[in-house]
Specification:
The chain is of the alpha/beta class. It folds into three domains: about 280 residues, Ribonuclease Z/Hydroxyacylglutathione hydrolase-like (Metallo-beta-lactamase, Chain A), CATH 3.60.15; about 150 residues, Metallo-hydrolase/oxidoreductase (Rossmann fold); about 90 residues, Ubiquitin-like (UB roll) (Roll), CATH 3.10.20.580. It has 15 helices and 27 strands. The strands form six sheets. The protein has an eight-stranded mixed beta sheet. It is globular, with a radius of gyration of 28 Å. It starts with a strand and ends with a strand.
Length: about 575
């Protein structure tokens, strides 16, 4: 039996599945629990699943050659018929970046705010068309047995929301990424009255942002950044070059406003920066009343003391705008003495080395560089401890699950909850893939589903696994040796002296004795291993074993060894 219920504040109708009174509520994180990024959670009750967020994680140093990391959605593919939609909290990469890879497989609707739809559409343009439902903060929708209301939260991007998800056994409050900022650069402050109202009505489960749960006190207001950027800009003698995340529309607005007050023109560089600024302008989130935003054709003609460049590269990405400018590889813009560079972002863990290298290069070229919180040019968009405590006090949940953070962040947040209102037995620190089952009175982790990393490498999605990554690390560390051995197919004996080719291991000219010695070792090993008919696999193992031992004894290094057996 099925029936229909009208979405409140909307004219459309959504199909609602019959509620199973014996079912339990299941919380299944597929990403974002134990790591920064890749945020994705499945909320399941009976025959209905609602997905919250669908993000990517950027690769660390161990993931050689990988472009992006997305969640493993095997469980969702197996249960595709149950999925009623994906609800998006905000349009940062770690919450929407996996949608182009996931939606074509699941083919389910996306529920999001207007700005999120615009930024997601840019990503989805080369993929299958998606079904969007634009939900304004303060409005809601129904999806299966779930009735969801978006409420505004303050974050480092406009139109960020948290969610109150009403289920058959109680309500869930999911904060999304948030902080409590009473003077936000754009958008509304976090709706504390809505959270207090939900708390008074009774909340079964709170799922709350843990990214800065180790940081005491309060997160500074976004307005601080606007003041700092304008102060630096007003004293700059030459060009001002600012890098930040391309999704920080509110930061773009602060830059445009500061440029207007200092009689400067703004130029955007970088594909994602250009795309997002265009979407922000089209949707009204980025305003330019003084017409200070210019085109790249105007940049060479604009006096240096009237130029503001906004570019990608806040994380030191090798192909980004700022890094190309720093390396003097950007034809239209070269750093000269008198330029001012503002890095208005914090390095994502693992990117510190890339960012520091870029900063050093900029200083060497004569630029004045402002970076870090000490310069006042960036504040993070996540709640610190006192704000997290306030949310816990307002919501007063029966159960608590910290989300969005590495294990130490989740643990610190759980301790805060234990001190405020949730006893340890009702607080659950989950890992990706854990299945938490809740009823009205108790909860427990009952199992685990398939989870983990799926690697995006160019056009390849999921084809790169642990073996390939290990091989890449070996290649990057110790290089490669190709051993070419020719054998007589009739006798199994060697038909010629082995040939050794190396890349990234040793200098063949300077290490001639080592190479010749390896050929001698191979000859001896193959003479001992002669058998008929010629067994390629056996000979390859003999070659690998002999060369691995020889090279390690003489160099203490283990290059990748690729045997090539040729029969004549």
């Amino acid at each position: 039996m099925t029936y229909y219920r009208r979405n409140y504040k909307k004219k459309t109708e959504t199909k609602i599945a019959k509620v199973n009174s014996d079912a339990k509520l299941r919380i299944i994180p597929l990403g974002g629990c134990g790591e920064i990024g890749k945020n994705m959670t499945a909320i399941e009750y009976g025959d209905d699943i609602l997905i919250v967020d669908c993000g990517v994680m950027f690769p660390d140093a161990e993931m050689v050659g990988i472009d992006l990391v997305i969640p493993d959605i095997s469980y969702l593919v197996e249960n595709q018929a149950k999925i009623r939609g994906v609800a998006i909290t905000h349009a940062h990469e770690d919450h929407i970046g996996a949608l182009p890879y996931v939606i074509p497989q699941l083919k389910v609707p996306i529920y999001c705010t207007k700005l999120a739809k615009g930024l997601i559409s840019v990503k989805m343009k080369a993929r299958d068309k998606a079904e969007y439902h634009v939900i304004s903060p303060g409005s809601g929708f129904t999806a299966g047995c779930f009735k969801v209301e978006f409420f505004p939260v303050c974050h480092s991007i406009p139109d960020a929301v948290g969610m109150i998800i009403n289920t058959p056994i109680g309500s869930i409050v999911h904060t999304g990424d948030f902080k409590i900022d009473y003077t936000p650069a754009s958008g509304a402050p976090t709706d504390l009255s809505k959270l207090a109202q939900a708390g008074n009505q009774g909340v079964l489960l709170l799922m709350s942002d843990s990214t800065y749960a180790e940081t005491p006190g309060y997160t500074p207001s976004e307005s601080v950044v606007g003041f700092s950027i304008e102060r630096i800009m007003s004293h700059a003698e030459g060009r001002v070059i600012i890098t930040t995340f391309a999704s920080l529309i509110s930061r773009m607005q602060q830059i445009v406003d500061a440029a207007a007050r200092n009689n400067r023109k703004v130029f955007f560089i970088g594909r994602s920066m250009l795309d997002n600024s265009r979407i922000g302008m089209e949707l009204g989130y980025l305003k330019d009343p003084k017409k200070v935003i210019g085109t790249m054709e105007d940049l060479p003609k604009t006096p240096k003391n009237r130029v503001v460049v906004v570019t990608t590269g806040s994380q030191g990405e090798p192909t980004s705008g700022l890094v190309r400018i720093a390396n003097q590889a950007y034809r239209q813009l070269r750093i000269v003495k008198g330029d001012t560079v503002i890095i208005s972002a914090s390095p994502i863990p693992g990117n510190e080395g890339l960012v520091n290298r870029t900063i050093d290069t900029l200083f060497k070229l004569g630029a004045d560089v402002y970076h870090g919180t000490s310069a006042g040019v960036h504040v993070h968009g996540h709640a610190s401890q006192e704000e997290l405590k306030l949310i816990l006090s307002l919501v007063k949940p029966k159960f608590f699950v910290p989300v969005h953070g590495e294990y130490r962040h989740l643990s610190a947040h759980a301790k805060l909850a234990n001190a405020i209102c949730v006893p340890p037995e009702r607080s659950f620190i989950l890992s990706n893939g854990d299945v938490l089952e809740l009823d009205r009175e108790k909860g427990q982790v009952v199992g685990k589903v398939t989870s983990g990393n799926v690697y995006v490498d160019g056009l390849s999605v999921g084809d790169v696994g642990g073996i390939i990554l290990r091989n890449r690390k070996m290649l990057s560390r110790d290089g490669i040796v190709v051993a070419i051995v020719t054998v007589n197919s009739q006798t199994g004996e060697m038909a010629a002296r082995p040939d050794i080719v190396t890349r990234g291991f040793i200098d063949v000219v300077e290490s001639k004795d080592l190479v010749e010695g390896s050929k001698d070792i191979l000859e001896k090993a193959i003479i001992k291993a002669v058998r008929l008919p010629v067994d390629h696999d056996f000979l390859e193992e003999v070659i690998k074993s002999a060369l691995d031992k020889y090279f390690y004894e003489n160099t203490k290094r283990r290059p990748m060894i690729m045997p090539v057996v040729v029969q004549v």
